[in-house]
Amino acid sequence: MSEQTVSVIEGMCLSLVGNGATHGYDIAQHFAPATRLGQMYTVSRPVVYRALDGLVKKKYLSSAKSTGARGQLKWILKLTKSGEQVRKEWLNQPVQHIRDIRTELLVKLLLRDESGLSSQRFLTQQRATLQVVLSGLLRDRDDSVAAVWRREQARAVARFLDELLGQRHDVVSDSDSSDRLQLSARNQLRATVLQVKHGGVLSSVKLAVSSGQEMTATITQEATHQLRLAPGDEVLALCKATDVLVATQTQ
After folding, report:
1. What integer pLDDT is reported at residue 169 of this predicted model?
2. Which residues on adjacent β-strands are paired with residue 65?
3. I need a surface site. Which of 92, 178, 216, 219 has the fewest CB within 10 A?
4. 229: number of CA atoms within 13 Å, CB side?
5. What's the confidence (pLDDT) of residue 61?
6. What is the model's pLDDT at position 225?
7. Which residues contact 145 (CB under 8 A, 6 or more apart)?
8. pTM, rounded to two decimals
9. Cα 9 to Cα 248: distance, rounded to the nearest angstrom
10. Residues in the chain with pLDDT < 50?
């Protein structure tokens, strides 16, 4: 990012100007509650005007006098070269906190779409950016109300990003889970899914087992979708090995 970063509202204003908005009133209208953008991020007209003034002072926007249809004075806004660079950087910067998914990320996805930008690579970077945070939250076994809420948020964010990336999780009815199987495998480990990575055919599923250790299972991508595997899911890992290797430490 550039040395001078911008706030969410400033980044939104730069993007709107880049998408064709030319004056303050027009830009402020995009933040009305009934608009697509306003449904995600609503601010008052004075707040928008202050943000635009700040962007002009930072030389990210240029402002020139013009005359409206009724002869009124208007100020036409345009992106400067540095403003265009900051706009691109802001639109391509993943959010750093789960709490920003509901606002900043949704806004960026909408503005990217209106700019004609593909978001597949951006979403992949976003998923990777939050992976450590999500894994840490899902690994936490604290049963306090706050911890349970944070885990549920982490699960929701992981599923949301995976679905946007095309890794959809089919919904099944409760009746589908009525049939139970008894398995003869004795090596059964209760585990929590930490991460699911998809390849062309196979998927890598990282698990945290009850002993505090981690293990990785490689299964088909089709199986991960059928099982609806996502970070935070409680699963049963079944192990069967034809070879058991034993190691000792030499003195």
Report:
1. 47
2. 75
3. 178
4. 27
5. 96
6. 78
7. none
8. 0.67
9. 60
10. 1-3, 169-178
SS3 of residue 107 by DSSP: helix
Q: In this structure, what token pair is assigned to residue 92?
A: 């391509």
| Contact between 108 and 88 (Cβ < 8 Å) | no
Residue 81 CB partners (closer than 8 Å, separation 6+): none
Task: State how far the alpha carbon of 162 is from the alpha carbons of 8, 21, 84, 155, in Å.
Answer: 24, 33, 30, 11
- Report the 10 Å Cβ neighbour count for 88: 15
Distance of alpha carbon 73 from alpha carbon 199, whole angstroms = 58
**Residue 102: CA atoms inside 13 Å, Cβ hemisphere, count?**
6
The per-residue pLDDT for range 24-68, each reduced to its tens digit, is 989 999 999 999 999 999 999 999 999 999 999 999 999 887 766
pLDDT at position 167 is: 64
Going by C-alpha positions, the residue among 111, 85, 84, 108 that lies closest to residue 95 is 108
Q: Are 181 and 238 in contact (CB under 8 A)?
A: no
Tokens matching residue 3:
């040395």
pLDDT of residue 103: 93
Q: What angle do CA 37, 38, 39 make, to 5 degrees?
A: 90
Q: What separation in angstroms does the CA of 168 have from each of 101, 160, 216? A: 19, 9, 22
Name the token pair of 171.
């919904």
Q: Is the dihedral of CA 148, 225, 210, 182 positive or negative?
A: positive
Q: Phi first, then psi: what are they for 73, rounded to 5°? A: -75, 130
Query: Are the C-beta atoms of 126 and 97 separated by less than 8 Å?
Result: no
Q: Which residues pair with 205 in a beta bridge?
A: 196, 217
* Cβ atoms of 51 and 60 closer than 8 Å: no
Select from 92, 106, 125, 139 the least CA-distant residue to 40.
106
Residues 4 and 79: their CA atoms lie apart, in Å, by 16
